[in-house]
Amino acid sequence: MRRLYFAGLLLFAAVSLQAQTLDGALLAAENNYYGTARTMALGNAVSALGGDLGSIGINPAGSAVANYSQVTFSPGFTTSRMGTSFNSPEGDKYFNQLNKTTGKLPNVGTTMVFPVGSGSSITFGFVANTTNVYSETFSVFGKNASTSQLGALAQLANGIDHSYFEDGNSGYYDLQTAFDAYLIDEITGTTDQYIGATENKYIDEDTGEIFVELGDQIGQDYFRRRSGAKTDLLLNFGYNYLDQLYLGVNIGLPVFDYRDDFTFTETSLRDGFFQTGFRRSEEYEYTAYTGGGVYAKFGVIWRPIGGLRVAATYQTPTVFSIEETYGWSSYLQATEITGNETKAADGHFAYTLRTPSIAGLGVAYTIAGLGLVSFDWEHTDYSKMYYSLSRVGSSEYSPMVSDVNSDILYNAGVANQYRIGAELMLTPAFALRAGFTENSRKLSAGNYSVRRSYSGGVGFAQPDSPFFIDLALRWNVLPDYYNYPYDLYNDDYTVLVYESPEISARRRTLDAVVTVGLRF
Questions:
Q1: CATH architecture for residues 5-189+260-291+326-347+403-519
Q2: What is the pLDDT of residues 91-132, one digit of tens each?
Q3: Domain boundaries, given as residue ranges, for the chain
Q4: Are 431 and 452 in contact (CB under 8 A)?
Q5: Can you say how many angstroms the Cα of residue 399 is from the centroid of all Cα atoms in its chain?
Q6: Which class for 70: exposed (0-12), middle (13-18), buried (19 or more C-beta within 10 A)?
Q7: 134-179 pLDDT, tens per residue?
Q8: Which of 17, 138, 389, 473 pairs as cysteine with 224 (C-beta 3.0–4.6 A)?
Q9: Which of these, 72, 106, 42, 25, lies nearest to 318 by C-alpha position?
């Protein structure tokens, strides 16, 4: 029976439900709003402001605030800066920084306003607003004189009779691939003990006891790339009652694509120190999923006096249908090993994810011709996320789904998003804007996962012109990244049996958006 367990992230999962995890659910459920340049520059603290197509995804009543029809187009880009560190088991540290820029279209849409009486109107709109961008690349090289990934795979296989692997249908997808590619092999004279291609075997002449250890210091390359985005397609209806009460509803159709590519490479640094003639191994894994969902969102803005506005929103749970593909491959180059050196496996899976509801409040105060200040609060409970199987015939995965849902229930946590924005009208045609956002989610250990964003921008709109243009920049400080590619623990995760290098990263991203619009 297998008694050791990987603690690493997205490295040779022993089951096919790779994206069906707590982290995978958060990727689909979290909203890190983009929208137009104006809303982004204001820190997306626009729930009580409205009047802008970027605000409609945050508060559907925002479409009713403007007394004109409009169309906007908002291209932009995101640059990620990942400073990745490799900390070996011996305490040696290596560092690499990688920057990556990707283009995007975080907002495009239109609204049409129709008067229905003195001071009242209805609004219809269609808007596409980006609510999450996945754009990160981690890459770092280090040296390790103590452990190897292939040694960890061998230890993980210990206790499994090699006849299961010989049949080619062991059920251990990761280990089967490693065995087929000769990354691991049974130790001669045993039936359920294994050795990695990076390891040497020694026999005590007096006792006959077998010892296995890393043949020599090796180089290890860690590479991980995330890409994709989530965009909400919004069908909007708004109602303006006498410029005092604004109501709105969205039918939201979020669509998303996400891909995670992971490669871990080990190389010999000196020839002649490995009994297998080991030169190089490469483990590659990918997870990709696409999906769509549906939700409804309701909003209200009330203007009790003068420039004061208060707002409330509620978004129903979103039901996503997810199609996932995944696969991995193993490669080995070793001069003393012959046979099939490359093996690959892949698969497909489908499931449903229900994300939690979202509630929000907002308040804003505007001074005509001078500027405004605004504050938003948004609350959600991620422990309410829930996976379910979406196809008949997948009952063998039911226990795994149950385990993931239990993990979500006890570890996902409650999150609060705080947003602050301000705008100063320097002239009737020129506005200066700034904003701040903090996303804070409570973790099971009592700590918090915190994402902070600092934004600013400018807007240009001549009073007698239907055209306007806005610019925005946003600097995002994301939680630090930690990964242990092949840490091995005992069955209750209390004892570290085999130590991996620690991969950590300082994560920062820069967003830039320009919005070009027409009012009519």
A1: Beta Barrel (2.40)
A2: 999 999 999 999 999 999 999 999 998 889 999 999 999 999
A3: 5-189+260-291+326-347+403-519
A4: no
A5: 25
A6: buried
A7: 999 999 999 999 999 999 999 999 999 988 888 776 667 778 889 9
A8: 138
A9: 25
